[in-house]
Amino acid sequence: MKLLKLVPDNTNLDFMRWRNLALLLSIILTVGSVVLVGVRGLNLGVDFVGGQMIRTTFAQPVDVEQLRSQVGGLGLGEANIQEFGGPRSFQIRLPKPEGGEAAANRAASRVRAMLAQQYTGARIDAVETVSGKVSEELATDGALAILFAMIGIALYIWLRFEWQFGVGALVTLLHDVAVMFGFFALTQFQVDLNIVAAFLALVGYSLNDTVVIYDRIRENLRKYRKMAIVPLLNLSLNETLSRTIVTALSIMLALAMLLIFGPDVVFGLTLAILIGTLIGTYSSIYISSPMLVWLGVKSDSFVKADDRPGPEGQQGAREPA
Amino acid sequence: MMDFPRWKVWAVTLTILAGILFAIPSLLPASALAKYPAWLPSARINLGLDLAGGSHLLLEADTADAAKQRLQAMEDTVSTELRRNNPRIDVGDISTSGGRLSFMVRDPALVDAAVERLRPLTQGVGLTGTRDWDVEVVDSSRIVLTPTRSGATKALKDAMTVARDVVRRRIDPQGTKEITVVGQGEQRILVQVPGVEDPEALKALIGQTARLEFKLVDLTADAEQVAAGRAPAGSQVLALADGTGAMAVKRRVMVSGDQLVDAKQSFEQTSGAAVVSITFNSAGARRFGRVTQENVGKPFAIILDDKILSAPNINEPILGGQAQISGNFTVESANALAISLASGKLPVKLNVIEERTVGPDLGKDSIRKGAIASGIATIAVIAFMLVTYGRFGVYATVALTVNALLILGIMAIFNATLTLPGIAGFVLTIGAAVDANVLINERIREEQRRGRKIIDSIETGYTEASTAIFDANITNVIAAALMFYFGSGPIRGFAVVLMIGIVTSVFTAVNLTRMLVALWVKRNRPKVLNI
């Protein structure tokens, strides 16, 4: 049986030739994302700003404008109404009402009553009410979870490799997270608590990819001590290219299926992880690796490691190639 | 070389079989599980409320209200205690402003005696020697009681314990539903109720403190003064529950809801209006009988949470210990009040600070679509693995399938809850498992290209790929652990699946496929390696 080879054997692409162009692109992407978040802002869900979200499915297709004016007529503040997975399903978002929890509960009841009265067969699928206090805590928790995950990972890589690798991984992650924020600012997809899970998945995947490439760079640094750093990075990237593509494709294949056939509630989450996979794959080739050139990793960075006892030293010594 | 000892084959096989055995109950429908032999494991994965449908409520104690109530209770205790005992100590000018209780002792000679008598009330119950209240004498005749921090903390803790029981009794009077009521931090309670049809009714049940009091109406009060919010000495102005005004009532509580043994929704015989029938305990019944006997012809106010529900006239003494509470109820609201009263009053007011309700239909839809999508995704990835790696793709597929079953099995063992973000974690884990297989297979391809012999390239492929697999998975474990520690609800659901998945995927990708490859190599002695 002839097996599929997406990447021909012994590729020799000069990835590093484009590293300055890629750097420019990455800087533009990062800065652009930050600016975009500043200018357009994020479409934050009730989890992070407080307020109410009511998800409803009608028995018949409904005119959004009519629904908007009906909800607006209740005088509950500016409602945000979006289609959610079909012309009969909508998500109604109401701002945090003045006057505390009792007012919030009353607001939800009024919307429910209105829907039941105006549309026969309307089904309330979900209601979420989050107070200002809780939403602040959730936002802090989410930010802390992402921040500490990034720092913890960078520290581990520093310990297992060299400081340049730790810094390289951290810069890569900062880029990834910034671009992901940019994506959400651009598309105005709703950012809720589930999206934090997507950010964390992005951090995990991007790191996974970076570590695999770093592992090969470390191996080659030990193997070819005389080789200059740029060709060595090219070699490592080419050697791992087939793996990078097969893995990224399998994951994106699975996510695409989930996106097409999966439940509407996970659409945002799945899309975010899919985009994250793309960003993570790009950044491990064009940020993590050239960072090592800029940070001055030398071919002898791991020579000392050979003299040290421990698994790394043993492996380097055993593999003269 | 390519040695896979017999004991290791057994260990891997048994681990996998055990995992699958634990995974089966979660995959079977409930009806099939009922016929399942009892000696087999039957623990299932719990579905989160976002999948199964239900309500999630986060309640927070109103600490300001708790402090106020504690102060009022202290005021009552102090005045009865000082007046009752011999010698009677007269006090006046009681005030509870500024979070402190202060009062004048009329006879300055009795100040020391008063302080002495208050000692048992203000000292903590425990053996730690910390006080619950600080007692100070100001201007030689005024006593000031200030709640200490430790006393307030302890009071809140006790109140929260009681509140959890009350909430549980209110939501689930029969104790038959699978509800969760747990404390979170010092002043919060998390309530999870599966399959709720009407979350508003649920919130109404919890939202009521249900402090029921019967007080005499102060007939001497001047209507204009009452409208301005001023009441004669010994009385207070309370608003009417229907919002139509206010009324002056005596401060002294005739009978309170603490003395109830039962409350039921019923209908008034003449008008057919919904009312709540209550039954007092023997002490309450005696007291209620005596007070009604003494005040025939006068109105008394039925007060719920400081609002007057109604103020009927006492037509005759009520001696049987049974009474009806009327007050513009619907059948539902009367029923909710009956449940609240029967379950006892909440020791502290609880506010709903977070509510998440998912209707049962949406949940079912999500599960069905999620299962279909996962199936299609699995088939797509398997097909991709097969066309890319051939025989080794088959091994990878076996590893992926076993991996998925092991995750389910371990989650069932720990009785973990699967949520929507958990499903995302599941997908990511499958991705990581694919990656481990890809790393190994690509490395074997590479080593073969470098001219190694078949067995040698397989062996080197596994060893060399394992450092990358190890480092990549450790970083993911770190990320998952930090997520679990710092994250809340959904993030934790994601992290749990991720952590379990990392362990199982390394096990299946490295140990299981290696075993399969080793057995194949041993039996067939392949001459060519098509990978």
Summarize the structure.
Chain A has 321 residues and is of the alpha+beta class. Chain A has helices at 19-40, 46-49, 64-72, 100-118, 132-160, 163-187, 193-223, 229-261, 267-294, 303-307, 311-318, and strands at residues 43-44, 51-57, 80-83, 89-94, 123-130, 190-191.
Helix content of chain A: 55-70%
CATH topology of the largest domain in chain A: Multidrug efflux transporter AcrB transmembrane fold
Rg calculated over all Cα atoms of chain A: 25 Å
**CATH architecture annotation of the largest domain in chain A:** Up-down Bundle
Give the topology.
The complex is a heterodimer of chains A (321) and B (531).
Chain A: H1 19-40, E1 43-44, H2 46-49, E2 51-57, H3 64-72, E3 80-83, E4 89-94, H4 100-118, E5 123-130, H5 132-160, H6 163-187, E6 190-191, H7 193-223, H8 229-261, H9 267-294, H10 303-307, H11 311-318
Parallel strand pairs in A: 1-6
Antiparallel strand pairs in A: 2-4, 2-5, 3-4
Helix pairs in contact in A: 1-6, 1-9, 5-6, 5-7, 6-7, 6-9, 7-8, 7-9, 8-9
Chain B: H1 6-27, H2 30-34, E1 46-47, H3 49-52, E2 54-61, H4 63-84, E3 91-95, E4 101-105, H5 111-122, E5 133-138, E6 142-147, H6 149-171, E7 180-184, E8 188-194, H7 199-207, E9 212-216, H8 223-227, E10 235-240, E11 246-250, E12 255-256, E13 260-267, E14 274-280, H9 282-294, E15 300-304, E16 307-310, E17 322-329, H10 331-342, E18 350-358, H11 360-389, H12 391-413, E19 417-418, H13 420-449, H14 454-486, H15 489-524
Parallel strand pairs in B: 1-19, 10-16
Antiparallel strand pairs in B: 2-8, 2-18, 3-4, 4-6, 5-6, 7-8, 9-12, 9-15, 10-11, 13-14, 14-17, 15-16
